[in-house]
Design goal:
Number of strands: 9
Oligomer: single chain
Number of domains: 1
Order of helices and strands: HHHEEHEEHEHHHHEEHHHHHEE
Strand order of the largest sheet: 3-2-1-4-5-9-6
CATH topology: Rossmann fold
Strand content: 15-25%
Distance between the termini: 27 Å
Helix content: 40-55%
Length: 245
């Protein structure tokens, strides 16, 4: 998956900005862990500042965008972590397990190197039924349903806590469903280029879907169809914070 993010990761640190509400939930889940290994760390969006953090990331483009004062990072994959058994208090994996080539092997590695595991994943069925997928780019559904879902990941980890993380309407991290109440945001090039669901879908399908979405926004059809969403401040897109160990 490093090849994908070496391609779509350009501009990632700008489009995928840390949302403090999710950051607070992750810090709480880490508990009293003083040392944390961030696996699939990307640009370091959700690395806590109040403890020692070490990062693992396979994509050179993502590593390039890490801040100069970011925690140390090594280029490696989750399935083979270059760290001794039990070396850290907690292993953190934020929206990355669905990209691992052998995700169960990666989960086993998280458990090997840490006493506590905190994983942010999502319900793939809910993503596959998201309005953008259902109405505009249905080709994305097959991709989402091929990925490990939060329930599978929680079971593999032997999780003791699974907490829903709702999406506020003004969410600052451009995850795929982030614009559930702001459809025009999908029309911006950075939304297409920094989201794996869009980047991995057939380009012609995405182009057709975005053209239909643009027309529906202009005509008011999208607003009429999704009037119920416009009354909400936050929405459950299926994101789950999984804690084990």
């Amino acid at each position: 998956m490093s090849e994908l993010y070496d391609e779509i990761g350009v501009g990632y640190s700008t489009a995928r900005r840390t949302d403090p509400r999710w950051m607070a939930a992750i810090v709480t889940a880490l508990g009293d862990a003083r040392t944390v290994l961030d696996v699939g760390a990307g640009t370091g969006s959700y690395e806590p500042e109040d403890r020692a953090v070490y990062a693992v990331e396979p994509a050179a483009e993502m590593i390039r965008q890490r801040a100069p004062d970011a925690p140390p990072v090594v280029r490696a994959v989750a399935e083979s972590l270059p760290i001794r058994t039990g070396a850290v208090d907690a292993a953190l994996a934020v929206l990355t397990v669905h990209h691992w080539s052998h995700w169960r092997q990666g989960i086993a590695e998280l458990r090997r190197v840490s006493r506590r595991q905190v994983v942010l994943a999502y319900d793939t069925q809910l993503h596959a039924d998201y309005w953008f997928v259902r109405e505009y780019v249905p080709e994305i559904a097959a991709l989402e349903l091929s990925r490990p879902s939060a329930t599978e990941i929680a079971a593999e980890l032997g999780a003791h806590t699974v907490t829903p993380l709702l999406l506020p309407w003004d969410f600052t991290d451009g995850v795929f469903p982030a614009y559930w109440r702001r459809p025009a945001a999908y029309l911006a090039p950075e939304a297409r280029h920094t989201c794996s669901a869009l980047a991995q879908a057939p380009p012609e399908a995405v182009s057709r879907g975005l053209a239909r979405l643009s027309a529906d926004i202009s005509s008011g059809r999208w607003r009429e169809r999704h009037r119920d969403l416009l009354a909400l401040d936050e929405w459950d897109a299926g994101f789950r914070l999984i804690t084990a160990g």
